[in-house]
Amino acid sequence: MKSNVILFVAGVVVGIGALLGALALVPNIMPAAQPQKITLYSPQMEKAMIRFFEKMTMMTEEVVTTSSSEAREAALMSDLQTIRSQLELYKVQHWEKAPHLDENGKLDTANFVARILSQTDINGKISPSGEYGPYLSMFPNNPFIEENGDRVAFGAQNPPPGDGKTGWYFNTNTLMFSANDTDHVGL
């Protein structure tokens, strides 16, 4: 997308150059009785060109920013879908227990991510010889959180707090996994 914008700007610059070149030919086709002096440089032309390039720069930045935001939004949606489907698979393979519970069914949020990234036995105990998992090769970052984007907060708040302190939020009552940034808590 960015390369298309750059090519467009380059094309406009070439077009302006051709227009200015054509204007330089105008005195040669005018009748001799009306001589006119045409210069390729004038302060007005310089100001017009500066305004033009400023607008082109702003348009380019807007296109790139929009593309970046859309890409981050798509990455967030994809990561949410992947994590949620893998959490469902984990539950199916572990007697309907989610990975926030240890092998004895007790709350163990400290090993939530480890259970997703490791092999486990049918009870959810992390074990290199476990027959289930890993469910992800790495835990994703929420692309809208700069620090701790791969961290998960736990609680029963519904909707999630959306405080941006962590990238993700897992509701221990509803077992809903969500983004934890202000703009995406409802996804």
Can you put this structure into words, describing what you see?
The chain is mainly alpha-helical and 187 residues long. The chain has a domain of 108 residues. The chain is 45% helix and 6% strand. A 3-stranded mixed sheet has the order 1-2-3. Helix 1 packs antiparallel against helix 2. About 6% of the residues have low confidence.
Shape: elongated
Across the major sheet, the strand order is: 1-2-3
| Radius of gyration over C-alpha positions, nearest whole angstrom | 30 Å
Helix content: 40-55%
Which structural class should the secondary elements be placed in? mainly alpha
Number of helices: 3
Number of strands: 3
* SSE run: HHHEEE
Mean pLDDT score, rounded? 81
**Span between N and C termini?**
27 Å
> How much β-strand is present in the residues?
5-15%
What can be said about the biggest beta sheet?
3 strands, mixed
List low-pLDDT spans.
5-10, 22-26
Provide a concise account of the structure shown.
It is built from three helices and three strands; from the N terminus they run αααβββ. With 187 residues, the protein is mostly helical.
Keywords:
187 residues; mainly alpha; three-stranded mixed β-sheet; 3 helices
